[in-house]
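WARN retry 2 of 3 for item q-0093 after timeout on previous attempt; input resubmitted unchanged.
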Amino acid sequence: QVQLVESGGGWVQPGGSLRLSCAASGTIGSITFMGWYRQAPGSQRELVASIFNARDTYYADSVKGRFTISRDNAKNTVFLELNSLKPEDTASYYCKVRSAALREYWGQGTQVTVSS
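OK item q-0093 returned
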């Protein structure tokens, strides 16, 4: 059984930073895609950042230059560094991984709140 365990969310003031982690465990095989999504109340879930085949990265325009995605292949873990946080970054953040067998798995979500 595959599990994704997220950590690192919390409350931070505008301009602050957080680091999210998502560790995949279980028999998942080769992971081709790891991504972070977020969903604010009343909004659709959106892709924030992703890393494909361990090297190709994507960032939503709203986070470019502020967020950084990285991956530890040995530990099947993906990180999201959030810098220069804004109130509009407030949301539940979810990680998703996709295996080479095209199976997808989601984390349980971690809350990020940016306010003064």
